[in-house]
Amino acid sequence: MSRVKIAAGNWKMNKTATEAVEFVQALKDKVAGADTEVITGVPFVCIPSVKKAVEGSNIKVAAQNMHWEENGAFTGEVSGAMLADLGVEYVIIGHSERRQYFAETDETVNKKTHAAFKYGLKPIICVGESLTQREQGVTSELVRYQVKIALLGLSAEQVKEAVIAYEPIWAIGTGKTATSEQAQEVCAVIRKVIEELYGKDVADAIRILYGGSVKASNAKELFTMPDIDGGLVGGASLDLDEFDKIVNYNK
Ligand code: PEP
């Protein structure tokens, strides 16, 4: 089954709205003919101006987080309803930085994933092990658990639309990329657990990304592995030429 590859940028807490608009305006032409689905994960405050700037292009916009409630006394939070109202297509959920610094758990990831679907947003759900966990040999077990809890209670149709990003924590922002074999091995484990839970059709349809120091020089090797459907890209997505080359890795 052929799945459309994804190149999703995660800008983290980088770029002002002015810088963001400048960037996507330049990116639009570069990626116009891409075979890859192009997503930029921008800070909340950049969303309205970036959405306007990418109108009519093939660039989709992701938020980097959301709350699971629709509204209420949650100071500083943003809901799925608010993101949907701005026309956001994707939302990154459970990034390891959110888990580490903002106490996100597999349970909150599951709540957010349900809320994302409720408001018509596609979740990009992040999972992955720390270096200690890899050294202890529990990577597969841990990732299987994270995926199971994240997807708990979702329908097969929803899971087909979800995106999972396998991001080994030791490879994020460190310059240490997992080898394509290491990344493939865990992405295959993820597809297998989805097959066990939802059947082969769903497992064949869901897109599984690798994230962790993806750059122009390693994108092709990673993205052409059988169970890797593209990348969630941090640092390199802030650089126009690098991100262009990642999006167009097959040209
Ligand atoms: C990320 O932030 O999801 C990420 C993978 O970062 P980097 O590409 O910089 O390692």
From TrEMBL:
GO cellular component: cytosol
Isomerase recorded as keyword: yes
Pathway assignment: Carbohydrate degradation; glycolysis; D-glyceraldehyde 3-phosphate from glycerone phosphate: step 1/1; Carbohydrate biosynthesis; gluconeogenesis
UniProt-listed Pfam families: TIM
Keyword Cytoplasm on entry: yes
Catalytic activity from the UniProt record: D-glyceraldehyde 3-phosphate = dihydroxyacetone phosphate
Subcellular location field: Cytoplasm
SUPFAM superfamilies: Triosephosphate isomerase (TIM) (SSF51351)
Primary site of residence: cytoplasm
Binding sites annotated in the UniProt record for substrate: 10-12, 173, 213, 234-235
EC number in record: 5.3.1.1
Active-site residues, record numbering mapped to chain: 95 (electrophile), 167 (proton acceptor)
Subunit composition and interactions: Homodimer.
Record family assignment: Belongs to the triosephosphate isomerase family.
Annotated NCBIfam families: tim (TIGR00419)
Job description of the protein: Involved in the gluconeogenesis. Catalyzes stereospecifically the conversion of dihydroxyacetone phosphate (DHAP) to D-glyceraldehyde-3-phosphate (G3P).
Identification of the protein by name: Triosephosphate isomerase
